[in-house]
Amino acid sequence: MSAAPVAALLAARARRTHRAAWSAVVVALALASLLLGAFALTVGATALGHARVERYAAADAVVAADQTTRYRARPWGGGSDTAEAALTERIRVPWHAVDLLRKVDGVRAAVPDSTFPVTMESADGGAAHGSSWEAARLAPYALRTGRAPGAADEVVVSAGHGASPGDRVRLRAGGEARTFTVVGVADGRDAVHFTAGEARRLAGHPGTVDAIGLLAEPGVDTAELQARVRDALDRARVRDSRAEVRAADDATALRVYTGDDRGSAEQLAAAPARSALLALCGAVAGTVILIAVLVIASLVAQALRQRAGELALLRAVGAAPRQLRAAVGREVLRVSVGPALLGAVASMPACFGLLGLLRSGGALPSGFEPAAPAWLFAVVLVTAGLTVGIARLAAFLGCEPIARARPAAALGATAAEPVRERPARRITGLVLLALGVSAAGTATLQSGAVAAAAASAAALTMVVGCAALGPWIARGATRVVAVPLRRFGGPAGRLAAAESASGARRLGAAITPVVLVTAFVLVQLTASATLSRAGDEQAVAAMRADLAVTATGDGLPPGALDRLRGTPGVAAVNDVLRGTVVLAGREAGAPSLERLPVLGVTPDALPRTLDPGLVEGSLADLGPGTVSVGRDRARSMDLRPGDRVRLRFGDGTERSPRVAAVHERSLALGEFLFARDELAAHLTAPRSTEVLFAASPGNDPSGLGARLMERLAADPARPDAQAPGGLTDVTLHQDPVPVRLVAEEQRAGEILAGVAVAAIGAFTVIAVLSTLTLIGVGRRPALRLLRLVGAGRSQLRGMLCAEAALVTVAGLVVGAGVAAVPLAAFSFATARTVPYLPPLQGLLIVGVVAVTAAAGTLLPVRRALR
Question: Domain ABC3 transporter permease C-terminal spans what residues (predicted)?
Fold first, then answer.
């Protein structure tokens, strides 16, 4: 008889007979498919996403600089590889490119565009961005009322500012404050439009423009226009304004953007957010796949282990190996397809919910638009197929020992649990544990994201090793608790000790998911909490200022800093700037580019206002061409005062500043600390928006604050000066918030880590419950037999409670031990402290595991105890 009909018959009967056992697997399969589909869709939507096109929506093409820096190196094994990172500061286009593009055949108009921050000191107040009215046609922003500006003191404002034609508004832009006449109200939001000449002057870079929008002649399609413009730029060899100082591997030729790519020329924050989110989602998705494989394989193997006797009987009465494999495979296929498809369907709203959470949490800039074309949703069929494939592979491996056994020996091989496991399993587990410890050791030698990645890899590797060593862990735990159970547990304790000793493989299967959920959740929560706590402590310790003034838009009014420095009672003024640098390096031999947040400070105000914690060198030497490096970064790069470090600023400029000092508080103040003027030269808009003040000895900070606000309001250049304290865009803080730098991807990482902990934590809790349910279903006959030979309900219930406690304690202890190794390495490498977990979160982990273990142990066998 052929294998197919027999396999179909056996699969159908087995599915009906063991419906209760398979129901525990169904939930895990649905959740696995949901998680895999949701993260796959999120990765796809992010990869296909683009910067939103707003101000250039009417332009057929946009010419701008390449905002990407590159680093090419030879990885291990030869060849050549290139790493890329988006730049956060504007690289501009030479002005002569405007005249060149106006002469290109097919170009109807080449419109230069530059934007700059504007503070509205009258009307409804607030911050806006300024540009020329000429550039408004690229949106297009049409006039709703009034006319276009024709003089230097005339402006058009966006609707919603509360201004009307004829109103007089006080605007601060380009380092000066003036009164302008509103002559029109236009579409758009938070925009102020000037004449072309006035906008060029206020932008502050007359020889360059941010971008050039191109309008095509009628009949010229976008592809043809792009080709003509590209040819004209290449023939003229036009390069961006930073071409002379950019890294050797960077592309300095101007780019021609069309379609959705036009948004890249206006939304500079979109590209860094996209790359950071892709990396984080990829890492989380990899973890999800590994955990899904581990959990599903464990559950399917446990479901088949419950039926080992039945499968062995089929083999003993003549079922061929291929018939057994085919029967089990078909059974698993019928069980898994429905839940996998259900999870795939549910993954679609889960993906949109995750993207919405990232958006609302500030992890995605408003200018980034994830893309989800209809064909992308076909990926959920792939993830559903992957879920089914994992289940079938686990079933094949689970039935293979019985399928290969000789018919005469099949029943004997399954009569009892093997006393000795295969040596290969023990060797594999020990090797994985050793690799995990080695990865944790690597984390101690690294810093930042590299240390976090090494710690995460160590935890996952050790969890898989513990899964392989599950029976040995169970036997060890049983030996530890057997003596007190037998001595003090009474009949229930002796029963629990005997059952645990005889069912080490079963107990190991129950402990493994507890270890998994404990280790994973502990690593995710503790690493984040440790880093956040250490950074907050450093920020508090670094803050020495008595007062702080913050401003929005164009920053403090012109000349304000000079007036503030001369205020009686002011001992030091620190004008703080925030920026980014890109550090080129290698990870596992491959080239990498790491973007880091940095501060620019006033050196002579340190440490009266902001104390970085000097370790080596002198902060007094901080100035042009120098930098202070964080201690951990200096250690990992083997840097000391006097050495040089090669860096790329946010505008692509590559420099090798000399290390003037090494500072301690890098988690709060950044890995690299520059003099303000040094960093300001590489920022798009270096405005004074955050200023720290130290009071002279004997001066009351509250009184000094009042004098500072009086100096700010009493601007001799303003005939309509406001009353003290009336500046709507300037805020005085008498108890300054500690300065704390946060990496661009940290917010997205925190949100994704929270989602991962919730989703994977729930998934593994379901796995614990499902595994214990499967074990309980398989133990019903044995428990009925114990009842028949005289065991009481209370004794059996006590035995099961003791086993649940054993599973809980062993899983928590082993899981905590697995997490402790990488966490200790990570905490030492990044924060020089011990791992920290909020007590409430620790109690929640213990409580959830205990309740889950008790429910999974007692509920499936409640009928057998009657």
Answer: 284-392, 756-866
